[in-house]
Amino acid sequence: MPRSPNPTPAGVLAGLLLALSTLTAVAQPTGRPAPEALRLRALAATCAHCHGTDGRAVEGEATIRLAGLPADYLLTQLMAFRSGQRPATIMHQITKGYSQEQLESLATYFGGLK
User: Fold this and answer.
1) 8-state DSSP, 103
2) Average pLDDT taken over every residue of the chain
3) Which secondary structure element, helix H or strand E, spans residue 92, and what is its range?
4) Residue 37 burial class via C-beta count within 10 angstroms: exposed 0-12, middle 13-18, buried 19 and up
5) What is this structure's pTM?
6) How far is CA 4 from CA 10, 12, 90, in A?
7) What is the tens place of the pLDDT at every residue in 30-69?
8) 3-state SS string over 17-79?
9) Which one of 16, 21, 31, 39 is least enclosed by Cβ atoms within 10 Å?
10) Phi and psi for 57 in degrees, rounded to 5?
11) What SS3 class is residue 80?
12) Residues 55/113, Cβ–Cβ less than 8 Å
């Protein structure tokens, strides 16, 4: 069947979408991180505003570096903030917004960084 010299807008859109999907498939590495790893990094990124990217706080700032601290210590502190045992200006409110599993995951994540 011969091609029409003036494709329809729907035909142009379909062609663009096909080209974009092909480029996207080629551009993505085959060894990309698992969805769970991406979710964990996104969760950990919520701490970056105060504790620095990947928990690497700027030296001399009031907040502590989380990266490399033992996971069990981090979890103990997070739970102490959550319960009110450890006084805080904001962490007691922040930790209440996370599930137990999320806090455990964050402690493990930051504990595994150097």
Assistant:
1) H
2) 82
3) helix 91-95
4) exposed
5) 0.69
6) 13, 12, 64
7) 678 899 999 999 999 999 999 999 999 988 888 899 999 9
8) HHHHHHHHHHHCCCCCCCHHHHHHHHHHHCCHHHHCHHHCCCCCCCCCCCCCCCHHHHHHHHH
9) 31
10) -65, 150
11) helix
12) yes
Question: Is 87 buried (19+), middle (13-18) or exposed (0-12) by CB count in 10 A?
Answer: exposed
Mean pLDDT is lowest, of 8-12, 51-55, 91-95, for 8-12
User: What is the rounded distance in angstroms from the CA atom of residue 103 to the CA atom of residue 83?
Assistant: 13
Residue-range domains of the chain with CATH: 36-111 (1.10.760.10)
Rounded to 10 deg, the angle between the 71-83 and 100-111 helix axes is 140
Here the tokens at position 28 are: 């993505």
- Tracing tokens 């009110």 back to the chain, one arrives at 84
Identity of the residue numbered 13: L
Question: Does residue 53 contact residue 44 with C-beta atoms inside 8 Å?
Answer: no
The confidence band for 8, taking pLDDT boundaries of 50, 70 and 90, is low
